[in-house]
């Protein structure tokens, strides 16, 4: 586990510090309160890094959570504290949330939680799952899910749009020769 690893140094330490700086205790507390409202656990909903890690590291609470969304999402929850069993729980949770509609880019890797590498991404995943909760009749957290806004255009409207020149192509207003960068090279 994380406490037996050597500390990171150099650029790796800087990268880890940058990842750790994104973590927000208030959002983590809100997330743990939301989990408690659905599952009845954990008792301590403090948002500090160590508490979040202790509550979620074995993956059993995460598996219980997704089973509240859809019964049987995780068929076998390992109660063992052996490393590979806990990591199986976390992996089963990740597979289940993808099926529940959490985008892959908002999930985390098993090692992020198990080795306490990136708890910020764990909270992001849980917040994303929290947005989906309303679709399953459960209390939700975070911003409301966006609704689809499909637009239908006629062929005439599509052809008219092809004649419009986008400003993304640039402009030379004010200069006849286009945009010039810096001074000319003197020879």
From TrEMBL:
GO terms of molecular function: actin filament binding
Superkingdom, according to UniProt? Eukaryota
Q: Which GO terms describe its biological process?
A: actin filament organization
Q: Name one GO cellular component term.
A: actin cytoskeleton
Entries under InterPro entries matching the protein: Calponin-like (IPR050606), CH_dom (IPR001715), CH_dom_sf (IPR036872), SM22_calponin (IPR003096)
Q: Known PROSITE patterns for this protein?
A: CH
**Where does the Calponin-homology (CH) domain start and stop, copy by copy?**
25-134
Q: What is this protein called?
A: Calponin-homology (CH) domain-containing protein
Species for this entry: Euphydryas editha
């Amino acid at each position: 586990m994380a406490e037996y690893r050597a500390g990171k140094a150099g650029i790796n330490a800087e990268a880890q510090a940058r990842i750790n700086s994104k973590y927000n205790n208030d959002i983590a507390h809100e997330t743990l309160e939301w989990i408690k409202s659905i599952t009845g656990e954990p008792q301590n909903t403090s948002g500090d890094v160590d508490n979040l890690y202790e509550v979620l590291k074995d993956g059993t609470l995460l598996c219980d959570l997704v089973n509240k969304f859809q019964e049987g999402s995780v068929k076998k929850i390992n109660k063992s504290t052996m490393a590979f069993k806990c990591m199986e729980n976390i992996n089963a949770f990740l597979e289940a949330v993808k099926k529940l509609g959490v985008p892959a880019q908002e999930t985390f890797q098993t090692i992020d939680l198990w080795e306490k590498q990136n708890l910020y991404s764990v909270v992001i995943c849980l917040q994303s799952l929290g947005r989906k909760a309303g679709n399953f009749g459960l209390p939700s957290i975070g911003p409301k899910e966006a609704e689809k806004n499909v637009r239908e255009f006629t062929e005439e409207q599509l052809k008219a749009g092809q004649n419009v020149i986008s400003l993304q192509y640039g402009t030379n207003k004010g200069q006849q020769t286009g945009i010039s960068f810096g001074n000319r090279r003197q020879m």
